Amino acid sequence: MAHDLRSPIGIVTSYTELLQREWHTLSVEEIRELLAIIRRVGRKSLTIVEELLLLASVRKGQVKMTALDMPRIVAEVQQRLGPMIEEYQAIVELPNDWPLAFGYGPWIEEIWTNYLSNAIKYGGQPPHIKLGAIKQGENMIRFWVQDNGNGLSLSEQAQLFIPFTRLNQVCVEGYGLGLSIVQRIVDKLGGEVGVESQAVMGQGSVFWFTLPANNQGVSPG
Length: 221
Fold this sequence. Notes:
Layout: H1 2-22, H2 28-60, E1 66-67, H3 70-80, H4 82-88, E2 91-93, E3 102-103, H5 105-122, E4 128-136, E5 140-146, H6 154-159, H7 178-188, E6 193-197, E7 205-212
Helix pairs in contact: 1-2, 2-7, 3-5, 5-7
């Protein structure tokens, strides 16, 4: 893992040293560009660390399934991604009602965060994203995120949820470690994950996951 983190940390270190050494010879615009690179790569490094910590907790964690307050969870995800939504001028549509389901709130928040952030980054311009859910059979609920991006080929789709072993194993550009963590989370919660997509510009993709239905109408704790 240390090897996989070395590259982004090395970039941050190099540009920081350059600024410290040459700041007096650089224009304001050049300094801004360097700071933007440092910020972007720093965010990437932080994301990698956060995903590794989450992966570790999922691997060894045993959690209690409870009734989910999905409107609250999704609202927290939107707030968490607020700056990103604003930066990309993304349009996010939500359903009027959510079917009741069981799960583990903190992990479900991470799933929505992963799916929604990917939809924002790789959607259209501007991203137009729809979230929704539908009953699947008698005992499961399928939750989904639809984007308006370029879609994915069948070979790309086949690699998205490959079980994680090393950071550089992930082959589909941009989607990274997060989807393999989503796979592990949903497996532990008794559901499935998947994607529906065609490699056609503007057709987009639908990323989904399933959870056990709360058919008894148990109220969130």
